[in-house]
UniProtKB/TrEMBL annotation:
This protein's pathway: Phospholipid metabolism; CDP-diacylglycerol biosynthesis; CDP-diacylglycerol from sn-glycerol 3-phosphate: step 2/3
GO cellular component terms attached to this protein's record: endoplasmic reticulum; membrane
EC numbers on record: 2.3.1.51
An example Gene Ontology biological process: phosphatidic acid biosynthetic process
Name of the protein this chain belongs to: 1-acyl-sn-glycerol-3-phosphate acyltransferase
One GO MF term: 1-acylglycerol-3-phosphate O-acyltransferase activity
Species this chain originates from: Acanthisitta chloris (rifleman)
Phospholipid/glycerol acyltransferase domain: residues covered: 67-182
Summary of the function given for this chain in its UniProt record: Converts 1-acyl-sn-glycerol-3-phosphate (lysophosphatidic acid or LPA) into 1,2-diacyl-sn-glycerol-3-phosphate (phosphatidic acid or PA) by incorporating an acyl moiety at the sn-2 position of the glycerol backbone.
Family label: Belongs to the 1-acyl-sn-glycerol-3-phosphate acyltransferase family.
Length: 227
């Protein structure tokens, strides 16, 4: 019962904040700067749920250049980890379906979140190419979950290569981030949701200067092994 209540509250909080903040974001227009509103709305949830965030390696975020963040993907709780460390001018890449989730999708669009169709490869490639141009031109950071789907197992799934193609095309570094497992306090399988501690480890950047598309498979696996 407590699990379902907490999950429902999480979803209701996100929906309520999206509904409340969308008019403000709409007045400002679609912009990556609106991510600050989303971040401010989600940050209090860690206190409400009694989840302590420990961040290690935060010095690796001190980059002035654009870069691509790759992070493991476990559950909706990843939002708490993301807003804890997301840098300035950073937008996530999300599945296209999120765009049509009412006011939540509207708030995400207004915040500059980039939507991608996971089931139409040519369209996805086109989005990656256009994003690579924007990253360099507007000094953006992009957050991607390369596993492509939620995964609560003891090892990471094979990485999809879109994030690495993006970094290579834009010739910008990759910054790996690892969020520790939630097993001690959260499990959708066991319907358990209590308080606990989560560790976020930020790894040193991985350069892509001089790399080509042929280098992407090796680059992807090297980053995955490091994570």
């Amino acid at each position: 019962f407590h699990y379902y209540c907490k999950v429902a509250f999480f979803n209701c909080w996100v929906l309520a904040m999206a509904t409340l903040l969308s008019p403000i974001a709409a007045f400002r227009g679609r912009s990556v700067e609106n991510m600050k509103l989303l971040r401010a709305a989600i940050l209090p949830l860690k206190h409400l749920y009694g989840i302590k965030m420990q961040v290690r390696g935060s010095e690796h975020l001190n980059l002035q250049e654009p870069f691509v963040i790759v992070c493991n993907h476990q559950a909706s709780l990843d939002l708490l980890g993301m807003v804890e460390v997301i840098p300035e001018r950073c937008v996530p890449i999300a599945k296209k379906e999120l765009k049509y989730m009412g006011t939540v999708g509207w708030a995400c669009w207004l915040s500059g979140i980039i939507f991608i169709d996971r089931f139409r490869r040519e369209v996805a490639i086109d989005v990656i190419s256009k994003t690579a141009e924007t990253v360099r031109r507007e000094n953006l950071r992009v957050w991607i979950f390369p596993e492509g789907t939620r995964n609560q197992s003891k090892s990471m799934l094979p990485f999809k290569r879109g994030a690495f193609h993006l970094a290579v095309q834009a010739q910008v570094p990759i910054l790996p981030i690892v969020i520790s497992p939630y097993w001690d306090f959260f499990s959708s399988k066991e319907k358990r949701f209590t308080s606990g501690t989560c560790t976020i480890q930020i790894l040193p950047k991985v350069e892509t200067q001089g790399l080509s598309p042929e280098d992407v498979p090796e680059l992807s696996e090297t980053v995955r092994q490091a994570m």
